[in-house]
Amino acid sequence: MARKKKPDLNELKEIFREDGSLESYLLIRRSFPNQKVEVGRFGGVDPFLVMRAELEEHGVVPTLILGVMDGDEVQIDELALRIMEWLVVRSALIKSGQTHLKIKREAVPDSLIDYLLMIIIESCERHSVSMPPALVVLLRERLGGPNPARHARYEISEKQKEAVWVAAQIFGANESISIRRLAKELNIEPSTISRWFKKENLRLRLNR
Fold it and tell me: Cβ of 129: how many Cβ atoms within 10 Å?
């Protein structure tokens, strides 16, 4: 049986340069684990010449973009802060009940925000620059917020365990469980405990 021909590295790199897909990248990494792959796609300044008017309208001057592309940590931090400010302004417009048309007219579009984020991330990788804290906070906000659903479920699970432990200390084996008393011990609202447990379920967990 003929051996399967190993893919050509240069051909795979060329394909990845053209399409930038996950499939192309994985094929290179799995076929040639020790090969360094250039992942940047947005290193040129030409796109920003086209977007210059839009960027300047939102307070982003060319020197800021050039600094980011050169891997200047101060400029990267500044652009991350600027994008944060845009998001805060948009959030305030939404909360104030402004019309969709007004928000669309005044807020910076997601397409521009995400494009600039890609520029920042690629620059950090290209120049081996550590991501500044502002960028970490910004990416966290874009990817799931400060308390994504999975983490929120974990935190609730930990609080439930604490509630069970405290209940085991203050209620006897045959004693009726008082949600109000337990809530006072935990310094939370009784309704919160009621959401976490039914009385029977809490008793079952205490008896385990």
Answer: 17
What tens digit of pLDDT does each residue of 124-138 get?
999 999 999 999 999
- Position 200 pLDDT exceeds 70: no
- In whole angstroms, what is the distance from residue 171 CA to residue 70 CA? 64
pTM for this predicted structure:
0.78
Q: Which residue has the higher pLDDT, 81 or 106?
A: 81
Q: How far apart are CA 84 and CA 24, in angstroms?
A: 33
CA atoms within 13 A on the CB side of 98: 16
With beta carbons less than 8 A apart as the criterion, state whether 60 and 88 touch.
no
For 85: left if phi > 0, alpha if psi spans -120 to 50, otherwise beta; the answer is: alpha
Residue 64 contacts residue 120 (beta carbons within 8 Å): no
